[in-house]
Amino acid sequence: MPKREIIQHKKKQSRVERKERINRDLETYGKEVLESEEMKQAFEQTHHLWSTVGEHTMRVTVTSILICYVLKKLGIKVKLPTVVVGALCHDLGMLGRAEKYESDKECHREHPKESVIVAQEILEDLPEEVKDVIERHMWPMGESKAPNSVEGVIVSVADKYNAVKDLVKGSEVKHTGVKNYALDQKEKIRDAVKKTF
Question: Is the pLDDT of residue 107 over 90?
Fold first, then answer.
């Protein structure tokens, strides 16, 4: 096999392994959130004009996980479970946005606190560090305090990166291609939601 083909093969294999690793981390740390009714609802609510809360959440979570991998390679300690759960729950307080909030400004200010409440309903023993990640993810916008942990910075940065990407590129933004519970079951989730009404 020519050298060029060997390099391409190794790159492809590396991408496949990374996707499998991300899927394992999502399953290990985020299964309860991914299988929750709230996450199912998140795929039905529009967010950032063209996306849904669920799609945006999955992009933020995957980006956050990838940042964790890089930081770990650099020798920086990161609590991956905190990042995964914080990223998955960061915008769940937006569910029912039109009924809960009178304006976008109010939504930006209040949804992080509401997201903590939703996360506590899904996970009874939600650690304080995860609550902080969720509650501070909007920084530097609104009245949000700055993240107080590396995990909080990761989720906040991933959120801003994906929000800008969503708004700038719109429907041209390509999905990461990562298979995971929420995205693999997207059609099943939509069918289940439709059957309940």
Answer: no
Which pLDDT band, with edges at 50, 70 and 90, does 5 fall under?
A: confident
For the whole model, what pTM was predicted? Answer: 0.81
- Whether residue 121 is predicted with pLDDT greater than 50 in this model: the reply is yes
CA 12 to chain centre: 25
Domains of the chain and CATH, by start? 16-196 (1.10.3210.10)
Helix residue ranges, H only, the chain: 3-34, 37-42, 53-73, 80-89, 97-100, 104-122, 128-135, 150-169, 181-184, 186-196
Q: What is the pLDDT of residues 10-25, one digit of tens each?
A: 777 778 899 999 999 9
The pair of structure tokens assigned to 10 is 């190794």
The verdict on whether omega for the bond into residue 127 sits within 30 degrees of 0, i.e. cis, is no
* CA distances in angstroms from 159 to 22, 184, 196, 197, listed in the order given: 18, 22, 31, 32
Q: Reduce the DSSP state of residue 47 to 3 states and report it.
A: strand
Q: Which tokens belong to 158? A: 């991933």
Contacts of 108 (CB under 8 A, 6+ apart): 138, 141, 142
